[in-house]
C-alpha cells in the first residue's frame, strides 16, 4: 500500500462564485461540480461543529483545485496568514511569461506583492493574492537555448 499522488488542493473562500470567476482568469476550468454538505458527516470529517459548506471543483490540466465556501461557522473574512506563518501556503502557476500575466491580471484587478522579479537561471517570478488573500505565484522560465 502506498500513496499514489495528490487528489486535489482545497482553498477556503468567502464567495464561491467570485472565486470561480477569479480562478477562471488564471486558466482554471469550472467542472460544474458543486457539493453542499451541512450534516453530521462534514462536522465529523472536519471536526467543525455546525459546518455548512458548498464546494466547487476547478481543473487546470490534470490538477484539481477545490474552492470551498463556509456558510457556517463564520471565519476570517480574509486569509490572515503570511507565507511565513505555519499553515501559510501559496499556489504556484507555471506561465509562459510572468510579465505578460502580471500585466493582464493587474489590469483585471488582481493585487500583487511586488513587481515581477528576476531569479537565478532566467526565472521571472511574482507573488499576488486572490480576492480572499490566498497567495498566488506566477513563475516563468527563460526558453532553453
Describe this structure in words.
The protein has three helices and nine strands. It is an alpha+beta fold and 145 residues long. The protein has two domains: 9-72, 2,3-Dihydroxybiphenyl 1,2-Dioxygenase, domain 1, CATH 3.10.180.10; 90-141, Roll (2,3-Dihydroxybiphenyl 1,2-Dioxygenase, domain 1). Strands 5, 6, 7, 8 and 9 form a five-stranded mixed sheet that branches. A four-stranded mixed sheet has the order 1-4-3-2. It is globular and about 50 Å long.
Brief synopsis:
The chain has helices at 16-25, 40-46, 98-107, and strands at 9-13, 29-37, 52-60, 63-72, 90-94, 111-112, 117-119, 123-129, 135-141. It has 145 residues and is α+β, with helices and mostly antiparallel strands.
Shape: globular
| Strand portion | 35-45%
Give me the CATH architecture of the largest domain, please: Roll
- The total count of helices amounts to 3
* SS content category: alpha+beta
Give me the count of strands: 9
Task: Provide the fold topology.
Layout: E1 9-13, H1 16-25, E2 29-37, H2 40-46, E3 52-60, E4 63-72, E5 90-94, H3 98-107, E6 111-112, E7 117-119, E8 123-129, E9 135-141
Parallel strand pairs: 1-4, 5-9
Antiparallel strand pairs: 2-3, 3-4, 6-8, 7-8, 8-9
Amino acid at each position: 500500500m502506498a500513496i499514489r499522488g495528490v487528489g486535489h488542493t482545497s482553498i477556503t473562500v468567502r464567495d464561491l462564485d467570485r472565486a470561480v470567476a477569479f480562478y477562471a482568469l488564471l486558466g482554471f476550468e469550472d467542472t460544474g461540480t458543486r457539493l453542499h454538505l451541512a450534516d453530521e458527516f462534514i462536522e465529523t470529517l472536519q471536526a467543525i461543529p455546525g459546518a455548512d459548506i458548498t464546494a466547487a471543483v476547478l481543473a487546470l490540466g490534470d490538477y484539481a483545485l477545490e474552492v470551498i465556501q463556509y456558510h457556517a461557522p463564520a471565519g476570517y473574512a480574509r486569509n490572515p496568514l503570511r507565507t511565513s506563518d505555519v499553515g501559510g501556503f501559496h499556489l504556484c502557476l507555471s506561465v509562459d511569461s510572468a510579465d505578460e500575466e502580471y500585466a493582464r491580471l493587474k489590469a483585471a484587478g488582481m493585487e500583487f506583492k511586488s513587481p515581477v522579479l528576476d531569479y537565478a537561471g532566467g526565472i521571472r517570478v511574482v507573488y499576488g493574492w486572490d480576492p480572499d488573500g490566498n497567495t498566488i505565484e506566477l513563475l516563468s522560465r527563460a526558453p532553453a537555448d
